[in-house]
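Predict the holo structure. Ligand: 1,3-dihydroxyacetonephosphate.
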Amino acid sequence: MATQGLKETALALVAEGKGILAADESSGTIVQRFESIAVESTEESRRSYRELLFTAEGMEEFISGVILFDETLRQSAADGKPFAQLLAAKGVIPGVKVDTGAKPLALAPGETVTEGLDGLRERLGEYADLGARFAKWRAVIRIGDGIPTERCIHANAHALGRYAALCQEAGLVPIVEPEVLMDGDHSLERAFDATRRTLRQVFAELAVQGVELEGTLLKPNMVLPGKDASTQASPEEVAEATLRCFHETVPAAVPGIVFLSGGQSDEAASANLNALNALGPQPWQLSFSYGRALQAPALKAWAGSGASVGAGQQAFLHRARMNSAARAGRYSADMEQLAAA
Ligand code: 13P
């Protein structure tokens, strides 16, 4: 049985009406996000943007936990309070991204393996001291000509298993994230097949490594056609395919599935999560751990201006509220109009 603390943390992260804010963009990724709003990425601009998100009043009503990047876990609000303490004081659980990125996989053209296992035990100890109670590791699986290969799926699943075991040893809940990308023009059936192959191997490796599923969360993609596919899918079709895939692969002992948004539009990410929850109770909580789908409108509204912090916070709170509703199957497109009015 998972130690009580891990299980409690995992359950708190998927508490009713709440989901996770992924604000763990690496230094490279945040440069791209800031370029889209013509803001220079500096230690201070990154800090003040994250402060906008974390201090949005009432975000704790919808957000159970925040995934931080290493740098952010070491930063503080303008008043000097470390972000991890600020979040914990609001009842929001701080977490941290611990992988060091996807690197080309040997002898596997076009595919990557996520690195970061060397020295991970020591880093996890430090992160726990800094206040992190959960962690995230993202594996990336690409669909294309002849890929994903078994080599790529196996290498990534193995790393996820090793990472998850180290997290539990350190008392942190591992979020296990095998992302099958929506890049490309593949069909929903190919996404289903690649996601099923991936999840089968991931859970096999978690078992080999002795990971206790009650103290683990899964962060997968939804089963979707590629974003350039000529045939797109309705939220109902996405929900049906996604659940069919998970019923075959995800053990019921996993307390929650927290989806990534992966490049879906904000509203599509809410509509698809809603359709998933509208299908009734499942063995696992179905929640969100969105990055772009929670932050894109907030970034745009803020655009680097101190005068627009309030507008950025309102935009973030709106998306958090929409996804909280979707978590209960109570989201509808009308709710977007009401907010705009
Ligand atoms: P997106 O929701 O933008 O895909 O980000 C989630 C995440 O944490 C990816 O690792």
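The chain has a mean pLDDT of 97. Residues 44 and 160 are 32 Å apart (CA to CA).
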